[in-house]
Write a structure and sequence with these properties.
alpha/beta, single chain, globular, 51% helix, 336 residues
Length: 336
């Protein structure tokens, strides 16, 4: 049995708390929101995961020290925009070598840092890993078979985290490509907004397939330019996560995109979804990274134009379709 601190009382953190408790581990859930902790203490259930019950012996707290002290693993599950603040808040309580696995997805807009880089900057003494893949909280909490990947600097840390999470309904692979895992998990949210916008416009399966296929091309193009492995983007945190986020109504990014495609503003869509839409926060960062590394991201560029420059969604799709003629795989030679 391991002692695990879940940092973040949202739906994903709670789904993982339920999973880890079923695996026999001792769970403490921390949130900075007193109202959230009261809800969990009173109901042993998160309002976003109805029917997913937390055990009676799960500890709920707003005390950072209590959440961190003596824990074998810390699971960082706060929205990307709160990662730096939360890491700074708990940093003084983290012991040298204490393991932290980040399960959120995003890129910090101002610094263009991944979330693991933020945590390492704020808590340099920690052993930081990441976990990502096609894994909606609504399904993980109900025990629906799910497969994800853990990235860590050492095989020992990756295998330790793998052993804590893995069971008959939650399969865990491991990888040393932390950067690729994080970029795949972050950038797919922007493409999922595009898929949702297409749905909101009333387009069909052909359009969705095109966005997924060309979207993973853009993700891999930027990810490999930054140092990620191409194989990672062909795997769970690349094409796998992209498919589920573009296709599922559990996806807050797709749902927000649908509303935008139907004519609502970015702010109106986020307010209606009532959850953090990570793709909105990552979209600007993705374009800044594209400029920095000299790569073209036409889908993500159009998403930015719709979100932040007032461009109509239908015009964005037309501009994508009428781009200059291209070869699908330029590396393939023609026979002479």
């Amino acid at each position: 049995m391991a002692k695990v601190g879940i940092l973040g009382g949202g739906s994903w953190g709670i789904a993982l708390a339920v999973l880890l408790h079923k695996n026999g581990h001792e769970i403490t859930v921390w949130s900075a929101l007193e109202s959230e902790i009261r809800m969990l203490q009173e109901n042993h259930e998160h309002k976003m995961l109805p029917g997913v019950k937390l055990s009676e012996d799960t500890v709920f707290t707003t005390d950072s020290n209590r959440a961190v002290e003596g824990k074998d693993l810390l699971v960082m599950s706060v929205a990307s925009s709160y990662t730096r603040k939360t890491a700074g808040r708990i940093g003084a309580f983290v012991q040298p070598g204490q393991k932290i696995v980040n399960v959120a997805k995003g890129i910090e807009e101002g610094t263009l840092m991944t979330l693991s880089e933020i945590i390492e900057q704020e808590i340099p003494q920690a052993d930081v890993a990441v976990m990502s893949g096609p894994s909606h909280a609504e399904e993980v909490g109900r025990g629906i078979p799910t497969t994800i990947v853990v990235g860590a600097k050492t095989q020992e840390t990756a295998e330790y985290i793998q052993s804590l999470f893995m069971n008959e309904v939650f399969r865990v692979y491991i990888s040393p490509d932390i950067l690729g895992i994080e970029l795949g998990g972050s950038l797919k949210n922007v493409v999922a907004l595009a898929a949702g916008i297409a749905d909101g416009l009333g387009y069909g399966d052909n359009t969705k397939a095109a966005l997924i296929t060309r979207g993973i091309t853009e993700i891999a193009r930027l990810g490999t330019a930054m140092g990620g492995r191409f194989e990672t983007f062909c795997g769970l945190t690349g094409i796998g996560d992209l498919i589920v986020t573009c296709a599922s109504m559990h996806s807050r990014n797709r749902r927000a995109g649908i509303l935008i495609g139907q004519g609502k503003s970015c702010e109106e869509a986020m307010a209606e979804v009532q959850m953090v839409v990570e793709g909105v926060h990552s979209a600007k960062a993705a374009m800044a990274l594209a400029e920095k590394y000299g790569v073209q991201l036409p889908i993500i560029e159009q998403v930015n134009a719709v979100l932040f420059a007032g461009k109509s969604a239908d015009q964005a799709v037309k501009d994508l379709m009428l781009r200059d003629k291209k070869t699908e795989v330029p590396a393939f030679p023609w026979k002479v």
